[in-house]
Amino acid sequence: MPLSVYILALSVFALGTSEFMLSGLLPPVAEDLGVTIPQAGLLISAFAIGMVVGAPLLAVATLRLPRRATLVALIAVFGLGQVAGALAPTYAVLFASRVVSALACAGFWAVGAAVAVATVPTTSRARALAVMIGGLSVANVLGVPAGAFLGEGLGWRSAFWAVGAASAIALVGIVSLVPALPRPAERPRMKREMHIYRDRQVWLSIGTIALAAAGVFCAFSYLAPLLTDVAGLDDGWVPTVLALFGVGALIGTAIGGRFADAHLFRVLILGMAADTVVLVAFALLGRHAVAAVLLSFLLGVACFCTAPALNARMFDVAAAAPTLAAATTTAAFNLGNTAGPWLGGAVIDAGLGYGATAWAGAALTTAAIALAVVSLRLQRRTPGSRIVGTGSATADPVCSEA
After folding, report:
1. Helix (H), strand (E) counts: the chain
2. pTM for the model
């Protein structure tokens, strides 16, 4: 992998820590700002909403701008958003800071993923994306538990200050080590790139990504109260279990990145099936402390195993518009990240309990599997299509050109 891909992974570590750390900070945030835990959970949705809106918006706005300068500007805005969150006097201000940070984060993901894919051969796309997503996995191993630890010892605001510092380090890395990329021979044209949305396979990929993400986030967003109120663990266990989830995520990313290029649909379907099984097991066994800890680890493995394949699939079906493909993937993931916490909060507010969020999540991942199967069958019936990751392929001029 080129060095720039690893620098992007380092940057994603800061982005991912901010995106996920509130899962371990909901109780102290809710108490400090005088809101309920489901209302605090909407801060996760706020970030995801900003990602949904920001990914395509910033992809369009920056399409013809130099890539390195765009990455520098976006990581700088993101870091300032963390500072604003640390200083937020009210829930409304914190909510707004999350949206602004998410807009910058979305743009960074879209541009960064396009840069990562552009620096490697088409046969290594999933592996390059796995390295970049690995920054997110490390964020779950180190950043999110560290945020929970800081929140418990120094207050939840200290976690935002720490992410702001990490963003500054990422900024230095991009300026120093990511080279300026040559401009394309032909200037990108948004009208041409928008043609990807005429392809039903693109919409099937969007639906699959959104449902898979929503299923996991429906339960994961409320992992802290699941562990303490349902499984009966002490608050001090939350950072440890979040770290185990992160270790599972790192393992899952490595597995998915290793096999997705050659067996894309198998990784997709089996990974989402594993998500469903783990979520059902969580709903049935989550009241037992040992089972809750083990299942948190397995959920990290299962959901991150599918991430490289979900990303690579979108680049395959939207290869003619790589920047917009990256933005669409980011928006789809965060559409799910928005819907998941909202649905989980609705389940909790309905009086069904924290454990019911796992049942709702399992229903969503089952729907994602169904869409993936439809996409596979449709591609097998399409003359001249390329069956990615099934061991047989015919030339696809669009994919070959990319």
Report:
1. 17, 0
2. 0.71
Q: Which two tokens stand for residue 206?
A: 């969007």
pLDDT in tens, 9-53: 888 898 888 887 887 788 888 888 888 887 887 887 778 778 777
* HEC per residue, 130-151: HHHHHHHHHHHHHHHHHHHHHH
- Phi-psi region for residue 189, left (φ > 0), alpha (ψ -120 to 50) or beta? beta
- Cα 362 from Cα 274, distance rounded (Å): 10
Residue showing tokens 């894919």: 117
Q: Whole-angstrom Cα distance, residue 20 to residue 15?
A: 9
The CA distance from 6 to 112, in Å, is 11
Among candidate residues 308, 353, 392, 350, the one with its CA nearest the CA of residue 133: 308
Q: Mind listing the pLDDT tens digit for each residue in 100-146?
A: 898 888 888 878 877 777 777 766 767 777 788 778 777 767 787 78
CA 36 to chain centre: 25
Q: On the CB side of 210, how many CA atoms lie within 13 Å of its CA? A: 17
Q: In this model, does residue 182 exceed pLDDT 80?
A: no
- The count of other CB atoms within 10 Å of the CB of residue 270 is 17
Side chain identity, residue 94 = L
User: Mean pLDDT of all residues in the chain?
Assistant: 81
Place of tokens 């696809």: 396
CA distance 275 to 305: 10
The encoded tokens of residue 285 equal: 């066994």
- Spatial neighbors of 355 by CB under 8 A, at least 6 apart, are 226, 230, 282, 283, 286, 287
Structure-derived torsion over alpha carbons of residues 105, 107, 109, 114, reported in degrees to the nearest 10: -170
Q: What is the pLDDT of residue 400?
A: 26
Gap between the Cα atoms of 71 and 143, Å rounded: 21
What pLDDT is recorded for position 274? 92
Residue type, 156: W
Output the six-digit token pair for 68.
């390195």
pLDDT digits (tens, 9 = 90+) for 244-260: 887 888 888 888 877 77
